[in-house]
Amino acid sequence: MAIPILRFWKKYFENLDEGMGSTYERFIINEILFKAVEDYKIKSVLETPSFGFTGLSGINSLGLALEGISVSINDSDLRRLKLIKEIWATFDTDVSSDFIEDFGELPYEANSFDMVWNFSAMWFVNDLDKFLNEMSRISRKLILIMVPNRTGLGYLHQKYTGSNDLKNKLNEEHIKPENFVKPLEKLGWKLMHDSLIDCPLWPDIGMSKEDFLKKLGLSFLVKKDAVAKPPLTILDYYTGKAPDMKDRLLKLDLFERHAPILFKKIWAHHHYYLFLKQ
Predict the structure, then answer these.
(1) CATH of the domain at 35
(2) What pTM was computed for the model?
């Protein structure tokens, strides 16, 4: 989780450097998306809302589009949507993008998409029940929801040091599993898979390690003569500029693959839930 994204989302469009944490996270998200697409023969996807707690906004579904999946996204901020569309326009792929004022009324016909999903975004929805009903109405096959791991050390740290951002600007109740799992089951959806994910070797600090050390009063551990690292963004992997990026980052997945569930409960950054229409 990264509460500062509420104030700093624009900076990622000015400097495409997402850092190692968000870039690793992108590849883990892709693994889940690609598996769902393959297992359930998904041809069309809607990401709603597309603004979640990650680096560069609106590109979570870009990997799917590059694999030939029909992708639609929406956002509630016109400025951000314009910038998102500019990023997508640099790739030889199509995306349908819509401005949405009220996520309780999505402007799509019933069964418009094979899969509807979002990443760390449901706390921006005003009325969760209406939104879940809309997801159910417009999805033919799958609903995929990824939420922050609320028992994780990173989440708890930012919750209690976040200047009341969580309380004042977000609907935390909307990311509690009991508030979307049972309602979706009542709407005719079966929970097929859920798992703690995004569990790299580093904690969920939501900032650079240098800034984190300074915040802890440990500035002396920051190397004064450290060479500036080049920008890191999954976009370079998609363009072919950094073809080895995925392999390099996923070498850091020791905890992701092998850590016991009790450890992941305090270390993993997110939790995903995959529902199948019955």
Answers:
(1) 3.40.50.150
(2) 0.92
Residue 138, amino acid: I
Within the chain, residue ranges assigned H as helices are 5-8, 11-14, 19-39, 62-66, 78-89, 128-138, 153-161, 165-169, 181-186, 209-215, 234-239, 245-250, 254-258, 261-267
As a whole number of angstroms, the distance between CA 149 and CA 254 comes to: 19
Residue 131 CB coordination number (10 Å): 23
Residue range(s) defining the domain that contains residue 23: 5-277
Give every CB contact of residue 241 below 8 A, 6+ residues apart in sequence.
Answer: none
- What residue type is 240 in one-letter code? G
H or E stretch including 95? Answer: strand 95-99
Read off the tokens for 225.
């003569």
* Both structure tokens of 209: 């390690």
Pairing of β 270-277 and β 139-148: antiparallel
SS (H, E, C) 110-166: CCCEEEEEEECCHHHCCCHHHHHHHHHHHEEEEEEEEEECCCCHHHHHHHHHCCCHH
Question: What would the pLDDT profile of 243-256 be if each residue is shown by its tens digit?
Answer: 999 999 999 999 99
> How far is residue 61's CA from residue 33's CA, in Å, rounded to a whole number?
8
